[in-house]
Amino acid sequence: xxxxxxxxxxxxxxxxxxxxxxxxxxxxxxxxxxxxxxxxxxxxxxxxxxxxxxxxxxxxxxxxxxxxxxxxxxxxxxxxxxxxxxxxxxxxxxxxxxxxxxxxxxxxxxxxxxxxxxxxxxxxxxxxxxxxxxxxxxxxxxxxxxxxxxxxxxxxxxxxxxxxxxxxxxxxxxxxxxxxxxxxxxxxxxxxxxxxxxxxxxxxxxxxxxxxxxxxxxxxxxxxxxxxxxxxxxxxxxxxxxxxxxxxxxxxxxxxxxxxxxxxxxxxxxxxxxxxxxxxxxxxxxxxxxxxxxxxxxxxxxxxxxxxxxxxxxxxxxxxxxxxxxxxxxxxxxxxxxxxxxxxxxxxxxxxxxxxxxxxxxx
DNA sequence: AATGCGGGGTC
DNA sequence: GACCCAGCATT
Length: 363
Description:
This protein is of the alpha+beta class and 363 residues long. Helix content is 37%, strand content 12%. Helix 2 (35-45) packs antiparallel against helix 8 and helix 8 packs across helix 11. The longest helix is centred in the first third of the chain and has 16 residues, at 89-104. It is elongated and about 75 Å long. The chain binds a DNA duplex (11 and 11 nucleotides) through residues 41-42, 44-53, 84-90, 93, 120-126, 129, 141, 143-146, 161-162, 184-185, 188, 191-192, 196-199, 228-229, 257-259, 271, 300-304, 344-346.
């Protein structure tokens, strides 16, 4: 085994983070690695920080302890449990994947990387991660942490994402035959701590003696990244439509942003254009007791645009505003249970404006 | 190869 | 504010 692998594995043995999906003292000693836990954590961790994931992981594993349990759960329950974690396509693919594993594989994940790669929501990274973390296979695990460690280690100056080919080749040279999963997680832990994006702590690094940019003092300049586009600012409106202590929620289209999630009705804003100020859903015979626009504005930043969302409140005199077609996607939700509706954070912020005003006694 | 897709932490 | 993160799917 190479010196690099020995140093990293020794670092991991002494400093591995104790995480609920890993085997460790806190996360229950003597347990065997659970492929369902590895899979679930890897899906949740895609572009998401460890601290954000942990409470969701605990909730999911408590409610749905294995693939078969998750496979028979109602879509709406799973989507609501995912609310707030973001990237909701992951939850839609999670459901699909659980049902495939349950039906086609009798509730047990395949161990082969290429077989894993075919499942919904599992790409190159996750297939390699599951194969090596859960099943002890040698695989080339390449995430943002490892990309950072490798480009610094070998002074790879090609901008990402083009550099991925070189990084993978470098990885193939250094990943050991044994403990490939621990080796990868050692680099990930290193990237999450000492080999940080800003102000890397090279003086404390276990592989300083092998790191080109560390010794040159240039590690912080790596990896080089392609220039990214500026985020546009958009504006839009959402409505709080209330009758008899219930609020009107809609289920968003599966294909679009926040797809499949419950939401307040809005005016059709998206990444490319502002909302037009008119309700996007068709409501009939709306008889209004009271209407007001709130002063407070919801400010929210998505991956590729920012949004300033206005909020209008309407109190109705009656609730027979849904025609048969609308009843498919809209629902009157008890306001006291609004926390269980599973609203994405954008709309949870709008609800907060509403509840804050009620607490202050504004009528 | 480029784009769409959340949300929260860090500096 | 800008930047980033245990990426994937689609085009």
